[in-house]
């Protein structure tokens, strides 16, 4: 009975986050009210705040599930023996596509993940920083990158002493900043920007023979 109740709670939490994201994706954060979300998720407004204290928390919860799904797929491909570079291309391609498709939501996610303070004059849910949730989202993103870098290190393409955790965090921050300030028009522009940042950040971590082969060049 206790398990069933927990499953119900988890299902309701997921339903709220999914309904909120669908509304945000169509109209943006500012145009959607808590009442809109409660109505779409079939819960009361009071019940809504039992699960999430703000709209940003709802956005991050759904975003994290999408990132986790990408990580699961990447791990499955790596275990099956896929080339780490091909896995990396698939992961970054999907994230770049989402970044362009939902560019009007990138600011809220980026502020939470990078720990940026909201702009002066912002109010309501868009001003909520959600520091705890932002940190969890940042860790989820870093965990998406880590297995691919670790596979590259195992293959000898990265220096054995390279700190995979630190590289993962640096890459995530660089990619989010690119989305926030790059002014990209399409997925191809995002990927080109990310490739440049990836090459720059990874240059010191590459094994000497990998640098000689120019493995990170297009």
Automatic annotation (TrEMBL):
PROSITE patterns: HTH_TETR_2. InterPro entries: Homeodomain-like_sf, HTH-type_TetR-like_transc_reg, HTH_TetR, TetR_C_44. Residues 33-52 bind DNA. The keyword Transferase does not apply. Gene3D superfamilies: Tetracycline Repressor, domain 2. This is HTH tetR-type domain-containing protein. Residues 10-70 form the HTH tetR-type domain. Keywords: DNA-binding, Transcription, Transcription regulation.
